[in-house]
């Protein structure tokens, strides 16, 4: 088979991050080439280079044997590259036919040729054996039907290469089987298909070739035949833990946080977990597994439909963050710039936000108490520079994160939920933050830690709950947890076993 695509020696760096290093990818006509790897392995960066969103720092791209430069997304599309991202890129108020033919709508003298539009869309849907009304408004369809329309839109452009990024992440097993039929149909048509998925069983069912990425590097490319999910997991996670995440042994006390049967349809279902005083419990899972959604519901940012949350045995009706704070729960969000800080405000003002009531008398804030409290937190957490009047957006990422943590520590929570606490910070700041986490656990705080970095979860957690598609798929003690065991549960392999 001919190589529809050859990417050779692709490297890409961002400030402080080596995203890709000397990666090769060859996709052949009439073949499904799967790319697998942990979160942050470089899959998305590689595909954004193919789509023209990024330009590589080094390396070359050839299409059908001809070396080329992809100037941007429109250029990629003109060159026969179709992209189907995990997040649907459709217009809900338009019809199915209008969505499928977006960008290539048949027209004459500025007027849309409605009959030609419908016929063209119908032809694509029939090629997929998809029973979807081309005249239906897209927003009236199910998620699985919209996913098929998204792929049909890419297929309508007559591409030679189609990239499918987590196409089944929102689909049930039955719905996924309909999608697999479409993938096999496109392969039979001679299209080169690049398939990205965390669901290893479907990779083994569909793929002809598999490339494993880890930490921005190509670990191995081999035929899918004879490959097992266990082998893929070992290739994906083959890293050693480092001293960046030291584990501090502390006494474990009584249960502080209890979550029973927490459910929010479409996000997570029947989630139950326990966190004890002084215990660090990891919440692991792949992107889209529901980790952040569970944390937000426990804190009160989002409302669960059913289930119960208790702190120290007392039921918590956390329908707002204020109610969560009043119950003794604090939440450090994954996106600190959007949800964790007021960037233009001072360190002092940010730290004081959750405790303004305690700093006030008859509605007047005591500035002296506010400054004393802020200085104490800055000194305790080692915020640098320790200037409490300084705007937070002038600090480094690691020090901004320390301010977010300081803000909640001032509220003296019984439960601290940390969502990606070391994302986007340098190695030194990671070590500092984990030292702080260890000190908090030693002081008896119950800590729920969410991280996409498996070495982080494994190194500091006393126990780990693993989520797969919104449900708890495993509970692992520290003694039995390793990267392979977590990945088995995160990809659903443990559930099936």
TrEMBL record:
Metal-binding recorded as keyword: no
Record-annotated ABC transporter domain positions: 5-240, 239-494
GO MF assignments: ATP binding
Protein keywords: ATP-binding, Cell membrane, Membrane, Nucleotide-binding, Repeat, Sugar transport, Translocase, Transport
SMART domains membership: AAA
A Pfam family per the record: ABC_tran
Taxonomy, superkingdom: Bacteria
InterPro entries: AAA+_ATPase, ABC_carbohydrate_import_ATPase, ABC_transporter-like_ATP-bd, ABC_transporter-like_CS, P-loop_NTPase
Protein name: Sugar ABC transporter ATP-binding protein
Lineage, highest ranks first: Bacteria, Bacillati, Actinomycetota, Actinomycetes, Micrococcales
């Amino acid at each position: 088979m001919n190589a529809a695509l050859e990417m050779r020696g692709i490297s890409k760096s961002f400030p402080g991050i080596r995203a890709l290093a000397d990666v090769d990818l060859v996709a052949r006509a009439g073949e499904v080439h799967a790319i697998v790897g942990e979160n942050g392995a470089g899959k998305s960066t590689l595909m954004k280079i193919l789509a023209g969103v990024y330009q590589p720092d080094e390396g070359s791209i050839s299409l059908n044997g001809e070396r080329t430069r992809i100037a941007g997304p429109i250029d990629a599309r003109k060159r026969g590259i179709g992209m189907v991202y995990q997040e649907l890129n459709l217009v809900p108020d338009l019809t199915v036919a209008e969505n499928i033919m977006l960008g290539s709508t048949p027209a004459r003298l500025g007027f849309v040729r409605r009959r030609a539009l419908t016929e063209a869309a119908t032809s694509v849907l029939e090629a997929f054996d998809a029973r979807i009304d081309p005249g239906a408004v897209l927003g009236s369809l199910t998620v699985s039907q919209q996913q098929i329309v998204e792929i049909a839109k890419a297929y309508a452009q007559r591409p030679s290469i189609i990239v499918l990024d987590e196409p089944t992440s929102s689909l049930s097993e039955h719905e996924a089987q309909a999608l697999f039929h479409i993938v096999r149909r496109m392969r039979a048509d001679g299209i080169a298909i690049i398939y990205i998925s965390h669901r290893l069983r479907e990779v083994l069912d569909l793929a002809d070739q598999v490339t494993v990425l880890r930490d921005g590097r190509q670990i191995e490319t081999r035929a899918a035949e004879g490959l097992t999910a266990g082998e893929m997991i070992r290739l994906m996670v083959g890293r050693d833990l480092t001293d960046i995440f030291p584990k501090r042994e502390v006494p474990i006390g009584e249960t502080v946080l209890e979550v029973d049967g927490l459910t929010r349809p479409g996000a997570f279902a029947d989630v139950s977990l326990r966190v004890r005083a002084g215990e660090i419990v990891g919440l692991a899972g792949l992107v889209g597994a529901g980790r952040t959604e569970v944390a937000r519901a426990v804190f009160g940012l989002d409302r669960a439909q059913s289930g119960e949350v208790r702190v120290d045995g007392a039921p918590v009706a956390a329908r707002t963050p204020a109610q969560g704070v009043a119950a003794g729960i604090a939440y450090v969000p994954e996106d600190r710039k959007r949800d964790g800080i007021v960037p233009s405000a001072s360190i002092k003002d940010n730290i004081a936000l959750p405790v303004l009531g305690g700093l006030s008398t008859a509605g007047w804030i005591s500035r002296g108490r506010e400054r004393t409290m802020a200085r104490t937190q800055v000194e305790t957490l080692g915020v640098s520079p320790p200037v409490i009047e300084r705007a937070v957006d002038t600090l480094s990422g690691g020090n901004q994160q320390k301010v977010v943590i300081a803000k909640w520590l001032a509220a003296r929570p019984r439960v601290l939920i940390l969502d990606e606490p070391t994302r986007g910070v340098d190695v030194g700041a990671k070590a500092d933050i984990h030292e702080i986490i260890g000190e908090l656990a030693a002081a008896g705080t119950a800590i729920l830690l969410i991280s996409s970095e498996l070495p982080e979860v494994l190194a500091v957690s006393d126990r780990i709950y693993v989520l797969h598609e919104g449900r708890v798929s495993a509970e692992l003690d520290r003694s039995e947890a390793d990267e392979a065991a977590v990945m088995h549960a995160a990809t659903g392999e443990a559930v099936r076993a």
